[in-house]
User: Fold these one by one.
Assistant:
Number 1:
Amino acid sequence: MSYFQILILSFIEGLTEFLPVSSTGHLILTNSFLGLEPTEFSKAFDVIIQFGAIAAVLVIYKERFKFNLDFYKKLFIGFLPAAVIGFLGKKLISDMMESTIVVAWALIIGGIVMIITDWIFSRKSQENKPVDFKNSFLIGLSQCLALIPGVSRSAATIVSGQMVGLSKKDAAEFSFFLAVPTLTAATLYKLWKIRDIIHTEHISQLVVGTVLSFIFAIIAIRFFLTIIKKYGFKWFGIYRIILGVVVLFTFKS
């Protein structure tokens, strides 16, 4: 893997991790576009550089992550469903991780859902309910859909957050917070799996990828919050549909 390829993949990861467009789906498509073979390390690389995105959330929201038992209980409850289902279904998920067709259809269907929900909630008065334990679990349950590449963890949690009564901003921010334990667990698991094949050059590649992902993720989070305040989520849905259609006509597998 060249450093140019690392730059591109880190840019895609950092930019799309918190946007409702599926970072996993974009990374699969980017790997295919760059002609990278899906090796054990390349697939792990895409997950491990998420550490940069995790760090971006912790830096931007450092005040929220000061010790608060109630806050951490809600994150744990939200994290649990995806952790259990992700572990049980890891073989099926691994097989889907190489399919551009799965990504394309997930992008299209998810885009349609986003446009419809944005239209519905833009016409309803915002309830702006607080995040309680029940809502944490329901939002966390929706993360399981994002185990399908192309669905988008961010999209699933933001849509479900609005469905349980959160404002757009609160739904987006809770999605960011829930990413921390979810992505941390996925990253540590991948690191453990490839521990025997990591060489010196791999370490430098992972460090560079993580740092670049951190920088791009900070930019993306601030950009995302500004966009949803002004325009909502519909343009992300339109983008997903266009990209999905292009992928269907471009890639054959």
Note: The chain has a mean pLDDT of 87.
Number 2:
Amino acid sequence: MTRPTYIAKATWALAGLCLLGLAACKQDPAPNAAPDARTLELPVVQVLARPVDRLYSTPGSVTSEERIEVSSRATGYIQRIGVNEGDVISAGDILVEIDPTEVEGAIRRAEAALSSAKTSLENAETDHARLAGLQERGAVSLEALRQTTVARDLARAGLAEAQAVLDTALAGQKYTTLLSPIDGIVVARRKQVGDLASPGIPILTIESRERLLFRTSVSESQIANVQVGAAARIEIDALAEIDIPGEVLRVIPSGDPVTRRYDVDLALPAGLGAFPGMFGRAHFVIGSDIVVLVPNLALATRGGLTGVFVVGDDRIARFRWVHGGRVFGASTEIRAGLEGGETILARDDGRVRDGDLIVTAGAGPGQ
């Protein structure tokens, strides 16, 4: 036998062995035997359908009920601003000091005008008294006396006007030092040292942290269900609290013509630790629904699916996939997959498999 013929026969033999191996691989392996059912002692609970509040939820933000734009009633250059954005302030703290030169000049001018008015009145009263005496003796006419009377009355009016101007100037003096009217926080600084302060032009914006509100907006289809004084629940993400009690403080009866939504303010409890601008949600009760609730501990995960173990009359545990919904404290709403009256394991300890026999360790009330 030549060498090429031998190699060819060896190759065909090897190919045959490979084909036999592939054929053997195509055969299904023998299935694994199902694990033997076990007997476990676990508590069960009967599922009941119960009424729960139907909620209408809307997003919103924490806001301050007191937001004040600090401005001066006096005109002058800003000498000092004692606070910055984010500073916490108390009522009576000095916020801004304004150059008092112009105000002091106005006071001096008003004082000079008042002094002149007093002198004019003194002269007018002296002239009137002198002519009144002469007129009694018939030395002057009634017309001359009348003219001095008019001059005296005009001098009195001039004195009153000068006094009013001085009072106004003195009142403007206190506006050169601006004090905080509330306990709060500085949220905006709109002017800098050296800028001109003018009446009505804001220098600072401050907000109270003592009187906080939660502002949200309600659609026109639900506005009839939101009444002033009604209770609501508020959830603020930054505080990780989902059951902050609130009360509808006011409903703004003028809606946005584009969004068809109405602003609603809710009162927040004191000492909450929230800051204006924090995001959250308001939950309004607009009715009730009958829903199936299960204990949170009863929910199990098997093969990436969430469900519960239903225990039938034969005491066999069978895993059933469920569609969960809202969470109510220690219970979860089941929207599909379970009906009221069925019995389930009260908790999943990770050992339970489909087909296990359950020996009741204790039955709790329906959840």
Note: The CA atoms of residues 52 and 146 lie 90 Å apart.
Number 3:
Amino acid sequence: MRIAIFSNCYQPMVNGVVGAITLLRKGFIEAGHEVYVFAPAFDDFVDHETGIYRYRSVDLTKEVKYPVAIPFSPRIQRIIDGLDLDIIHSHHPFVLGPLSNKIARRKRIPTVYTFHTQYEQYSHYIPLPRQLVNTISRHKITRFCESVNQVTTPAESARQILIDYGVTRPIRVIPNPTNIPLEPIDGRKVREQYHLGDAKVLINIGRIAPEKNLGLLLESFALMLRRTTEPLKLMIVGDGPELPALKQLAGQLGIAEQVVFTGMVEPSKVPDYLAAADLFVMTSKSEVKPLSQLEALAAGLPIIAVAAPGANDTIIHGENGYLVQDDLEVISRTVCELLADVERLSRFRKAARQSAERYSYPRIAAEYLEVYRETMEAYKRAENS
């Protein structure tokens, strides 16, 4: 099968969509299929893998490093014209998404779209009235869903969001993939690097941005430190526009010495950081199926997260973690109680690892390949009728 993937973000960017596409591509190639990725250029980054094509791009804003593709390239169009593609899979409804639909119609092949993002949680980045941006966003997403042959999304809660928008196309729920380590990973090097000693370590991984609600995490952690006499550290892994403000808040709360801001970490190193931690804590409510949670489970790390669509579809409350209110008192109490219960923490670790098996990238890639086959067959039947 010859598969074209269109995405508004790709390596070297680090986020859940990029992680999912990277692992799906890996799974497809390992299964013997040809994969071509079309994405925006990122500064002077050079791809060392074949089959990746870049559109020229401009940054979303001066404050946010997010390249937006210019969806026009005679060179890439000639390349696409020369490819005998079977199906196109788009991961965004804007910019390169509509372009992928035009290409599919010209080539007379079907299209699949995956809804990854609650775009309304990101409308503050657009310099227009928020309600207007949200209304336009919902309309564009709905129209795009209706224009493709198959819609997928990583979580049941996200499927319900699309239904509430008015999408009538069938929507398949296929979780995001993750890479399950074959052997336990030793986190001692990370603990040594950041001088964590014997402290219990909480970790959060992701983009440092307002929609991630990390101020609540810092405030909850400050309360945890007052609740326990055990040495406790919080490691925040990632980079983004909110990082300076968070560092300032940690200082104001008097917890700067107990909080480690690592900055951006190479994706391949993320399992090492997870192995250095005891518990994954997430306060974001903007996720759909966050890759960081899947990676945490794969590392055998229980999760305590604010109850929200992304977490609700991943965490089995009372088995591999806890879903809690977005209240610093509740978060801090739940974390401290779990860390103090060694037997329960051990049981949650085992359950986390077991639940992650559902999301292994070869399994998820196989599910998508089956969806592609079904979509291609339905498209051919419609063409011949």
Note: Residues 47 and 323 are 39 Å apart (CA to CA).
